[in-house]
Amino acid sequence: MKTLPTKSNFLGIEEQKLCSYRDSQFVIQQLPYEHTSSYLQGSAKGPAAIVKASHYVEFYDEMLDMETFRHSGIATLPALRFEKKVNAKAIELIEKETLKLLDDDKFVVSFGAEHTVTLGLVMAHLKKFKNLSVLQIDAHSDLRDTYHGNKFSHACVMARVHELNVKLCQVGIRAQCKEEAELIKSSKNITTFYAHQIRQNPNWMEQATNALTDTVYITIDADGFDPSVVPSVGTAEPGGLFWEEVNQLLNNVVKNKNVVGFDIVEIAPVKGQILSEYAMAKLAYRLMGFIAKKKMVLS
């Protein structure tokens, strides 16, 4: 599998053995698919911006007391080319390419543009892992049946995931339409922790973790964070999650469940501002660290 030159890969790792596809546990997949952005555009530049920002993330993680990449390796693939593929064809391409990586026993970390890409990622993981559930960190439910006449809109991605009959746990939701709220109330497979509720519930992290099955895929829409933490997103919403609580949630899920893949989506870079892509690069490395640390403890 072809990877990027060391200067262009995640963290800018120079040791070939620690960023080669063959020797790496983690593989960064870049999915610059943007077709249905509904507010600010520019998320197609998000994956590359996260990788570039990662060059300024310290190798050493003080929370984990280790340099994660030295224990696991992190390979970075060139951005997937969609050409003119959109909607179902784009999802099919993502599923196909992701399955190739999973068949090689890689842990796939995907940086997407719009949230639509998560459907293809979940479909691929469902073919490899039984009883999969999805943890969604997001400002929006993304449970509309259609949006602007498109069933594959970013605003509908979790409705399509819900149709796959997987358990879905949503955290940080604070913007939705009535249709979405009614679906949440009627579905046995959706558990939603609204942003306004978690501030009043000291047990919400434990409850969110318990709402998941033993095998978990995580999708992180950057707008799940408060705009003070991650401002450069497609559709920002006030009242979001903060850095430490998201880290605590992810650490708790990794410790108690088998996390098999994750994505970060919806960064829309703004010229002259680097906070958002840097924060998401650091978050990706931190989450890989949680996963690598657990594997080290268990081995």
Class from secondary-structure proportions: alpha/beta
**CATH classification, class level:** Alpha Beta
Shape by Cα distribution: globular
Distance between the termini: 27 Å
The spatial strand order of the largest sheet comes to 4-1-5-10-9-6-7-8
Largest sheet properties = 8 strands, parallel
CATH architecture: 3-Layer(aba) Sandwich
Describe this structure in words.
By secondary structure, this protein is α/β, with parallel strands linked by helices. The protein has one domain: Ureohydrolase domain (Arginase, Chain A, 3-Layer(aba) Sandwich). It is 35% helix and 17% strand. The chain has helices spanning 46-54, 68-72, 87-103, 117-126, 157-162, 178-186, 195-198, 204-210, 243-256, 275-298; strands spanning 26-31, 60-61, 66-67, 74-76, 107-112, 132-137, 167-173, 190-194, 215-221, 258-265. The protein has an eight-stranded parallel sheet with strand order 4-1-5-10-9-6-7-8, sandwiched between helices. A two-stranded antiparallel ribbon has the order 2-3. α5 links the parallel β6 and β7. α1 (46-54) packs across α10 (275-298), α3 crosses α4 and α9 runs parallel beside α10 (275-298). The protein starts with 25 loop residues before the first strand and ends with a helix.
